[in-house]
Amino acid sequence: MKVPIQVTVNGKTHAHEVEPRVLLVHYLRDVLNLTGTHIGCETSLCGACTVMLDGQAVKSCTVLAAQANGAHITTIEGFAVNGRLHPVQEGFWERHGLQCGYCTPGMIVASAQLLERNPDPTEAEIRMAIEGNLCRCTGYQHIVEAVQYAARRMKGAAAAD
Amino acid sequence: MIPTPFDYIAAKSLDEAVALLGKHGEAAKILAGGHSLVPAMKLRLAQPQVLIDISRIKDLAYIREEGNSLRVGAMTTHYALESSKRVRVVSPLLAECAAAIGDVQVRNRGTIGGSVVHADPAADWPAAMIALRVEMVCAGAKGERVIKADDFFVDLLTTAIAPGEVLREIRIPLSQGRTGQSYKKVRHPASGFAVVGVAVNLGLDAAGKCANASIGVTGAAAKAFRAGGAEAALTGKPPDAAVAAAAAAKAADRQDMNSDLYASAEYRRHLVEVTARRAVLAAVGAAK
């Protein structure tokens, strides 16, 4: 028995009928072709599949597409606005916060969640905020620096407003 | 990592959820945040034929004070409890335990109700539920009933909730007078689950002696348990380092410890003692 769902992803509304067992990450990748959200462990440990669901960072491998009915979702594809990178994306670029890039979309979503809740995090708070996201390349140091860069940028932008 | 097929029904009211449970019986499972059930379904450890989603029912996610108790709706997320300024003031153990769960993404989505009814032996909440002497309010076809935390956790992944019942609310009695609380855990480095977790809730008298002690232990055994020996060893004494150590040594008394890849039974018994001592001293330190 398929269920109808309607979701708004990166500002665009989609309506589909899905099997209840379809995971949100599979819906995003296979139905909407938004392959920026990666599948890593599929066991809610690695964080590669992290997306924003109604403003909350969630692991989309552990959410059924049916549970997201009516939700507003932002994937990594929705972070840049009119070709201008989100400050966290810019931080990863400037501070070399990635090597292979597999974990990066999830890292960026989790980091953006942190900076929304805590615009001036300590290094320890940054490391805690990304504890649900595994990176096997960088040793995390450059990721932490990327988030610190983003925090400074966002504060600067806020001050300029 | 895809669940077996099932039907999905979003219940519009608690009455409808109870009626659906009655109709589908053992084939149905209640879906809250899905952070225990969905992983179990992906591993095909759970294969319900019907999922009844209660996340769309109005007014199941709330934190309210009523008289001397805090009422927490079953659908309240770990993050909501962790980030509530009021919870930190009136029930610091609840906030501390919430913040110790998994990672941010899990806490954003996972719910206190879903976690406690799953009764994972390595979950954090059961220790705090026992230490806080909470009451679980369950809705069923014949109305509501209240189950005390000590009676709630029955065995591995098993609670006292009857078939056909839905957990609706958790009631936390708020401590009166001078209180100190703490939750300490030995965290599994990969999963974040508690290899051992100890929640301590102490009442201190005017002289600084321990007037009452309530201690829950999770991760160590098939189900969370009350550390009665440790409570008795603290009560009536000034909770200094020596008393805390002597009490902690009794925290795992008469309990069979789990043994698995991560920790042998003997090591877990040791961890319970060390963690209980740290949690008792932290609770004493937190008492104002």
Task: Describe this entry's structure for a reader.
The complex is a heterodimer of chains A (161) and B (288). In chain A, strand 1 and strand 2 form a beta hairpin. Chain A has helices spanning 24-31, 87-94, 104-117, 123-129, 141-160, and strands at residues 3-9, 12-18, 50-53, 56-59, 72-74. Chain A has 2 domains: 3-78, Ubiquitin-like (UB roll) (Roll); 87-160, DNA polymerase, domain 1. The mean pLDDT of chain A is 96. Chain A is 35% helix and 16% strand. Chain B is an alpha+beta fold and 288 residues long. Chain B has 3 domains: 7-53, Uridine Diphospho-n-acetylenolpyruvylglucosamine Reductase, domain 2, CATH 3.30.43; 63-173, Uridine Diphospho-n-acetylenolpyruvylglucosamine Reductase, domain 3 (2-Layer Sandwich), CATH 3.30.465.10; 178-286, CO dehydrogenase flavoprotein, C-terminal domain (Enolase-like, domain 1), CATH 3.30.390. Chain B has helices at 14-24, 37-42, 78-83, 85-90, 92-99, 104-109, 112-118, 125-131, 149-152, 228-234, 241-248, 265-286, and strands at 7-10, 28-31, 50-53, 63-66, 69-73, 135-140, 143-148, 153-155, 158-159, 166-173, 178-187, 194-204, 210-218, 225-226. A 5-stranded antiparallel β-sheet of chain B has the order 4-5-10-6-7, with helices on both faces. The mean pLDDT of chain B is 97. Classes of the chains: A alpha+beta (161), B alpha+beta (288). Chain A binds chain B through residues 1, 3, 19-21, 23, 26, 42-45, 47, 50, 53, 56-59, 61-64, 66-67, 69, 110, 113-114, 117, 129, 131-133, and chain B through 1-8, 10, 31, 34-35, 38-39, 41-42, 51, 53, 55, 79, 83, 102-106, 108-109, 190-192.
